[in-house]
Amino acid sequence: MANLFRKKSVRKLLEDSKSKTLTKTLGAFDLTMLGIGAIIGTGVLVLTGLVAARDAGPAVIFSFMIAAIVCGFAALCYAEIASTLPVSGSVYTYSYATIGEFVAHLMGWTLLSVYIVTTAAVAGGWTGYFHNLVSGFGIEIPKSLLTIPTQGGIVNLPAVIITLLLTLLLSKGTKESKRVNNAMVLIKIGIVILFISVGIFYVKPENWIPFAPYGISGVFSGGAAVFFAFLGFDALATSAEEVKNPQRNLPIGIIASLVICTIIYVIVCLIMTGMVSYKELDVPEAMAYVLEVVGQDKVAGIIAVGAVIGIMAVIFAYIYAATRVFFAMSRDGLLPKSFAKINKKTEAPVFSTWLTGIGSALIAGFIDLKELSNLANIGALLTFAMVGVTVIILRQTHPNLKRGFMVPLVPILPIISITCCLFLMVNLPLKTWVYFGAWLLIGVIVYFMYSKRHSQLNKL
Known about the structure:
CATH topology: Amino acid/polyamine transporter I
Number of domains: 1
Number of helices: 16
Mean pLDDT: 85
Structural class: mainly alpha
Oligomer: single chain
Number of strands: 0
Largest sheet: none
Order of helices and strands: HHHHHHHHHHHHHHHH
Shape: globular
Membrane topology: Multi-pass membrane protein
CATH superfamily: Amino acid/polyamine transporter I
Main location: membrane
Protein name: Amino acid permease
Strand content: under 5%
CATH architecture: Up-down Bundle
InterPro entries: AA/rel_permease1
Keywords: Membrane, Transmembrane, Transmembrane helix, Transport
């Protein structure tokens, strides 16, 4: 039983981070771009309009602020732990150092489900924007190639293709792929700035009345709905071993990306709800829609192009994050060695990159994610809560470790973060808990059938 809670020494983790297994190429700007790339996607492009129409009205700005505050607590915890233990694996590795191997394995297993399911879901959503874009040029894709089998189609082919293309890009290594990702993120920020610059001239303050038509409960419901618009900054923690000066750059990347995205969300919401009545925003492509309403069709077309490119950056970030979790678990012996094998030419974990990409592509192409989407949500909330736990434990067990950033008011702020995450988890549907329980059960079987016997800690 004691073996289940054997820990990886903090000293060894720090030694591993200094050994040259992954090339250190990412600076603070690259990390901020990676974080923004992961965060800004379905949130600003899809959720803003839907939540304004159905839950909060113009008060959706407060829904985003509530979600940002909850994520902010978690981001502070991530910033401290990632700058203290700058190694691949995120909460998986942090749990390994503070709680024990079995919990760490389950955290890694949870992260894999979050990243792979999210990649597939975002790729599926990308198809809608892509189809709207190409149809504007008179190109019609057969519905059977846009829809999964359970909805009368054959395969969501665009989702499969874009996932595999981005996997190919990532398999070339982060030095090359980060340039493409930075370009995609800058384009995405550019179209948001374009929307703000044009839309602000069409704002009618009377559209903000009534400001909170669904009351305070609607604002909180909206906050729960848009919470997942902020997921993505956690993916930065998985890239720690490829970061130059991680004690400085990781906290900057994590906190800066969250702050920038919050400001963008609030401004976009204010302008969007000011351009038309919130009742008209019950459409997934609200940003382009409101521009069409005010007669800015050309700008709406540019926004559609930017949406296609911007969502590609989200897929990129989540495939990247999943491969780094595979890498960390494999290096520790909890998964086969092939997952940690680095290609000498590209210096990237090619096998785990392609496994993630192919798995995500198959899910996106053939499986209905309507009932599985909350699987990513419950997993993300659990890992957020666990990061708060690891901060508290590491402060007690290793108070003298060098920390690039320190969470104020420990243990109060981490406990608030943990409580907020658990509250949202409890409010998820029963079916989500059943799916999540089944996934964790598979993880437990993998641990006792393979991981426990092949762990690197057996050699100590």
